[in-house]
Amino acid sequence: MSDLERFFDLLVRNLAAADSTRLTQPIPILDLRNTLLPFRTHRRALGLGSSEEYEELLVRLVAEEGGLVSTQPTEVADWCRQQMASLSPDLSGIPGQATATITVRPEAVERVLGQVSAEAIARNATAAAAGTPVPAEACIHCGIKLPTNRAVNFCPSCGRNVTVIPCDGCGADMEPGWRFCVNCGQESSDAVVPGGQP
Question: Which domain holds residue 14?
Answer without folding.
Answer: 3-115
